[in-house]
């Protein structure tokens, strides 16, 4: 479905500059995701930190001709002769308005989903329940923001029979805009949890805001047993039919009579609108899945699925993997595994993700794709679109798996292409054996069993992994940025292998989000990042005298903290014929670790810097001793005074701007008035608030699996030196993680615990080098079950507290042999 540029101009009430004819098919807000320039309409959005207008020259060069702007570039007719500029007051509102008008074109059921958790699962399951018969358009992944929602709604086209969209809010006032864009005929509240509480005064306020979505809906779906929700719905005079569900109230339109959990599946028995008792089963036993399935049942029954269809389709529900996983594979390959549903929108997002990862090892990009099940699309058209996307996103090699793709091999316009009817035939082929030094995106509908490909391609490792959530890293980054002025620069500390999370992938993510500096400990870490495509500025905190050459070769900027280091650095640079090499001057204001003395060294330092031109101070900084504790606030103030005075003296001695910085993570939040020109974000990036040990957005989860279960009788012992005395008959599990992996031995003998299926299991006896034993008496579990050592459900700070240390030590102690697996929602 395309719109002419005239039509768009009218719909958003813009003033048009430029008179070229054009059709708009794609909306773009992030220049990095450009794919089809000719039909793209770019919205130059302004955020606190960034201004889309800055990307207009680049996008024009890349072929984009249509722009929605707040400011028309001066001399546009000369510089952009072929462009149309649509001028509006607020570009975000224009994007939302356009989506709203697009929405008006459709007279079909539109489901709008909000809630604290479960939105994406409900959306995906509804899609799974409906898509055998209906053409559904839904939000890709979790596009549920002020920008994501209009982009999602825009995806509806002539074939769409049902629209399903998520609406997520983090601040008061946001739902109104989302409601106008989605205009749901059926509004769904999944549940109300604690997420985003901080921006709302009370649970009721949050509920009220979310329920704005209900306002003009014909039908509203919610959980009547939740008192907060029921109260707010009651006071809210929405005209819609109240399709609530309850496990207690028989009069509820959807009365859930019983929920019976079995081995790996759950049966829900219900009565819908006083009809006959019916039931369905789902292949899950966790509470969240059960609740979400009930919400889905309400919507599905309302939209005309009958009890028989529900009973047939519910058992087929697939887990919703909202993740793109990055894994190191054999033979120099990197695997990006996207098990999210197979459809063209999520393929585009996954290709964009692959394309954006910088990779300077010159590796080729390969796409392994299964048949796409998307009803309503002609395969010719669909696979031609796949081919276009793949080419534009830099795919070199295409491997298609499935009968439909094989039959449409001609639509794929790539010179290197291979087709197989099944995963087995691919695995047996020469094509599979010859995968080498490639970045491979795997995207397969579940029934094709792409897991087998991944299993064979991934290096076999220890079953213990550290899962790193890259979205959480970005959320934390934004959390801290929210305390900073838009113009304040940011250094992200990724020393110690990014506090254990793995510096390469973290650096790629941070570079993608345009942080100003990355900081590592030693030159080799910096060189390694350069080798992996990191082009950001890199600071070296502990430059070794032996590594100057490496620094010069790789453009790494050292910190200087002493005259000895300063002189050596100047000599080395002069020898290479280098001038004006940027360095970062460290002052010691109280830590008494490294740094020049701000009271006695400044004259000498300025003198020596003036007498040479090999290096140049790019920044000057110091470090707080106790920014993470109120008890040191006075000392911090003294440190700041010392720094402020000495750094001003340094600046006064030079004409060029010298960036001044002192705030670390805790400083950013607690002394925002001391942010100066730049801040240095460390622990906060990894989701930990060092002041109170709370978790902001958890980044790392250390996981392992149960190797073996055994019953041990009362009176017996477990482990070395018979330390683990067993008082009652017990069930003991062995897990493949030990002190050599970074599981501190002091957690043994029941001083610490891990989580097995959500329940606490204490470490029994001494922790061994590679294995630990835990007490799982009374916990329903089996060999092979997953065990969380710390992470999403067990904060790492609980471990550090039990160990009487700081979370930094626990995180950086995870040894290299523990595989890091990265994902993003
Ligand atoms: C590690 C480090 C930081 C980051 O500290 P956090 O407490 O992790 O925020 C900042 N500055 C310097 C000099 C550091 O070494």
UniProtKB/TrEMBL annotation:
<feature type="domain" description="Alanine racemase C-terminal">
    <location>
        <begin position="699"/>
        <end position="823"/>
    </location>
</feature>
<dbReference type="InterPro" id="IPR011079">
    <property type="entry name" value="Ala_racemase_C"/>
</dbReference>
<feature type="binding site">
    <location>
        <position position="593"/>
    </location>
    <ligand>
        <name>substrate</name>
    </ligand>
</feature>
<protein>
    <recommendedName>
        <fullName>Alanine racemase</fullName>
        <ecNumber>5.1.1.1</ecNumber>
    </recommendedName>
</protein>
<dbReference type="InterPro" id="IPR036615">
    <property type="entry name" value="Mur_ligase_C_dom_sf"/>
</dbReference>
<keyword id="KW-0067">ATP-binding</keyword>
<dbReference type="InterPro" id="IPR029066">
    <property type="entry name" value="PLP-binding_barrel"/>
</dbReference>
<dbReference type="InterPro" id="IPR051046">
    <property type="entry name" value="MurCDEF_CellWall_CoF430Synth"/>
</dbReference>
<dbReference type="Pfam" id="PF00842">
    <property type="entry name" value="Ala_racemase_C"/>
</dbReference>
<comment type="similarity">
    <text>Belongs to the alanine racemase family.</text>
</comment>
<feature type="active site" description="Proton acceptor; specific for D-alanine">
    <location>
        <position position="495"/>
    </location>
</feature>
<dbReference type="GO" id="GO:0030170">
    <property type="term" value="F:pyridoxal phosphate binding"/>
</dbReference>
<keyword id="KW-0436">Ligase</keyword>
<dbReference type="GO" id="GO:0030632">
    <property type="term" value="P:D-alanine biosynthetic process"/>
</dbReference>
<comment type="pathway">
    <text>Amino-acid biosynthesis; D-alanine biosynthesis; D-alanine from L-alanine: step 1/1.</text>
</comment>
<dbReference type="InterPro" id="IPR000821">
    <property type="entry name" value="Ala_racemase"/>
</dbReference>
<dbReference type="GO" id="GO:0005524">
    <property type="term" value="F:ATP binding"/>
</dbReference>
<dbReference type="InterPro" id="IPR036565">
    <property type="entry name" value="Mur-like_cat_sf"/>
</dbReference>
<dbReference type="InterPro" id="IPR001608">
    <property type="entry name" value="Ala_racemase_N"/>
</dbReference>
<feature type="active site" description="Proton acceptor; specific for L-alanine">
    <location>
        <position position="720"/>
    </location>
</feature>
<dbReference type="Pfam" id="PF01168">
    <property type="entry name" value="Ala_racemase_N"/>
</dbReference>
<dbReference type="Pfam" id="PF08245">
    <property type="entry name" value="Mur_ligase_M"/>
</dbReference>
<dbReference type="InterPro" id="IPR035911">
    <property type="entry name" value="MurE/MurF_N"/>
</dbReference>
<dbReference type="InterPro" id="IPR013221">
    <property type="entry name" value="Mur_ligase_cen"/>
</dbReference>
<keyword id="KW-0663">Pyridoxal phosphate</keyword>
<feature type="modified residue" description="N6-(pyridoxal phosphate)lysine">
    <location>
        <position position="495"/>
    </location>
</feature>
<feature type="binding site">
    <location>
        <position position="769"/>
    </location>
    <ligand>
        <name>substrate</name>
    </ligand>
</feature>
<comment type="function">
    <text>Catalyzes the interconversion of L-alanine and D-alanine. May also act on other amino acids.</text>
</comment>
<dbReference type="InterPro" id="IPR009006">
    <property type="entry name" value="Ala_racemase/Decarboxylase_C"/>
</dbReference>
<dbReference type="GO" id="GO:0008784">
    <property type="term" value="F:alanine racemase activity"/>
</dbReference>
<keyword id="KW-0413">Isomerase</keyword>
<keyword id="KW-0547">Nucleotide-binding</keyword>
<dbReference type="GO" id="GO:0016881">
    <property type="term" value="F:acid-amino acid ligase activity"/>
</dbReference>
């Amino acid at each position: 479905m395309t719109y002419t540029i005239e039509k768009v101009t009218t719909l958003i009430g813009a003033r048009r500059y430029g008179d070229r004819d054009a059709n708009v098919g794609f909306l773009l807000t992030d220049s990095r995701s450009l794919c089809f320039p000719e039909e793209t309409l770019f919205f130059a959005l302004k955020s606190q930190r960034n201004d889309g207008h800055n990307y207009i020259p680049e996008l024009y060069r890349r072929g984009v001709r249509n722009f929605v702007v707040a400011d028309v570039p001066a001399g546009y007719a000369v510089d952009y002769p072929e462009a149309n500029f649509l001028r509006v007051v607020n570009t975000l509102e224009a994007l939302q308005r356009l989506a709203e008008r697009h929405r008006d074109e459709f007279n079909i059921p539109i489901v709008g989903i909000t809630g604290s958790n479960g939105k994406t699962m409900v959306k995906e399951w509804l899609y799974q329940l409906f898509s055998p018969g209906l053409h559904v358009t839904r939000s890709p992944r979790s596009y549920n923001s002020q920008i994501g929602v209009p982009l999602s709604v825009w995806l509806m086209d002539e074939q769409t029979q049902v629209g399903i969209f998520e609406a997520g809010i983090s601040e008061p006032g946001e739902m109104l805009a989302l409601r106008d864009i989605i205009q749901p005929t059926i509004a769904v509240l999944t549940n109300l949890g604690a997420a985003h509480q901080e921006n709302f005064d009370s649970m009721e306020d949050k509920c009220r805001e979310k329920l704005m979505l209900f306002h003009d809906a014909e039908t509203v779906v919610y959980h009547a047993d939740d008192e907060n929700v029921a109260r707010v719905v009651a006071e809210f005079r929405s005209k819609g039919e109240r399709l609530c569900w309850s496990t207690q109230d028989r009069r509820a339109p959807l009365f859930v009579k019983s929920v019976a959990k079995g081995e790996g599946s759950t049966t829900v028995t219900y009565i819908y609108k006083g009809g006959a008792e019916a039931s369905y089963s789902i292949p899950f036993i966790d509470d969240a899945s059960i609740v979400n399935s009930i919400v889905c049942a309400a919507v599905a029954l309302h939209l005309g699925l009958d009890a028989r269809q529900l009973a047939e389709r519910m058992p087929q529900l697939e887990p919703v993997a909202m993740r793109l996983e990055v894994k190191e594979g054999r033979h120099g390959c990197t695997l990006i595994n996207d098990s999210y549903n197979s459809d063209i929108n999520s393929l585009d997002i996954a290709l964009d993700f692959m394309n954006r990862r910088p990779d300077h090892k010159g590796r080729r990009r390969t796409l392994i794709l299964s048949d796409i099940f998307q009803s309503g699309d002609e395969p010719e058209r669909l696979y031609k679109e796949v081919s276009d996307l793949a080419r534009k996103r830099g795919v070199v090699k295409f491997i298609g798996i499935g009968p439909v793709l094989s039959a449409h091999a001609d639509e794929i316009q790539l010179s290197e292409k291979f087709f197989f009817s099944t995963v087995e035939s691919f695995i047996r082929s020469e094509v599979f054996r010859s995968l080498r030094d490639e970045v491979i995106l795997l995207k397969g509908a579940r029934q094709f069993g792409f897991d087998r490909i991944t299993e064979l391609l991934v290096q076999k490792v220890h079953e213990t992994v550290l899962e790193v959530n890259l979205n959480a890293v970005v959320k934390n980054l934004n959390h801290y940025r929210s305390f900073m002025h838009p113009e304040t620069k940011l250094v992200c500390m990724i020393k110690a292998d990014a506090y254990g999370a793995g510096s390469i992938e973290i650096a790629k993510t941070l570079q993608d989000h345009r942080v100003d500096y990355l900081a590592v400990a030693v030159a080799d870490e910096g060189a390694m990042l350069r080798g992996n495509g990191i082009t950001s500025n890199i600071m070296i905190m502990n430059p070794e005298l032996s590594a100057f050459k490496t620094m010069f070769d790789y453009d790494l900027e050292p910190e200087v903290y002493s005259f000895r280091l300063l002189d050596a650095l100047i000599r080395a640079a002069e020898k290479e014929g280098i001038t004006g090499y940027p360095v970062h001057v460290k002052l010691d204001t109280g830590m008494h670790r490294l740094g020049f003395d701000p009271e006695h060294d400044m004259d000498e330092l300025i003198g020596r810097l003036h007498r040479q031109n090999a290096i140049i101070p790019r920044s000057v900084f110091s470090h707080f001793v106790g920014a993470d504790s109120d008890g040191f606030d006075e000392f911090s103030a003294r440190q700041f005074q010392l720094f402020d005075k000495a750094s001003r003296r340094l600046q006064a001695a030079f004409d060029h701007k010298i960036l001044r910085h002192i705030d670390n993570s805790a400083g950013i939040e607690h002394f925002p008035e001391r942010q100066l020109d730049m801040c240095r974000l460390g622990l906060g990036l990894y989701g930990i608030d060092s002041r109170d040990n709370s978790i902001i957005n958890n980044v790392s989860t250390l996981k392992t699996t149960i190797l073996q279960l055994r019953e041990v009788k009362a009176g017996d012992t477990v482990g070395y030196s018979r330390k683990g005395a067993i008082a009652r008959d017990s069930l003991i599990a062995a897990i493949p993680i030990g002190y050599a992996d970074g599981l501190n031995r002091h957690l043994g003998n029941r001083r610490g615990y891990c989580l097995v299926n959500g329940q606490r299991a204490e470490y029994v006896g001494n922790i061994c080098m590679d294995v630990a034993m835990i007490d799982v008496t009374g916990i329903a579990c089996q060999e092979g079950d997953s065990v969380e050592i710390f992470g999403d459900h067990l904060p790492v700070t609980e471990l550090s507290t039990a160990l009487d240390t700081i979370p930094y030590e626990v995180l950086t102690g995870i040894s290299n042999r523990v595989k890091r697996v990265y994902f993003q929602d």
